[in-house]
Amino acid sequence: MDVDDDMAELESFRTEHGNLGGPALSVSAPTSPVGSPIRTSAGQKRLEKNFSFARSSRHESSRIVETEKLNIEEVGMLLEAHFVVIDNTLDKLISLKEYIDDTEDFINIQLDNVRNQLIQVDLLLSTASFIVAILGVVVGIFGMNFPVPLFDKLKAFYWVLGISGLTGIVIFCVFLWYFKRRRLIPL
Question: Which residues form a coiled coil (predicted)?
Answer without folding.
Answer: none
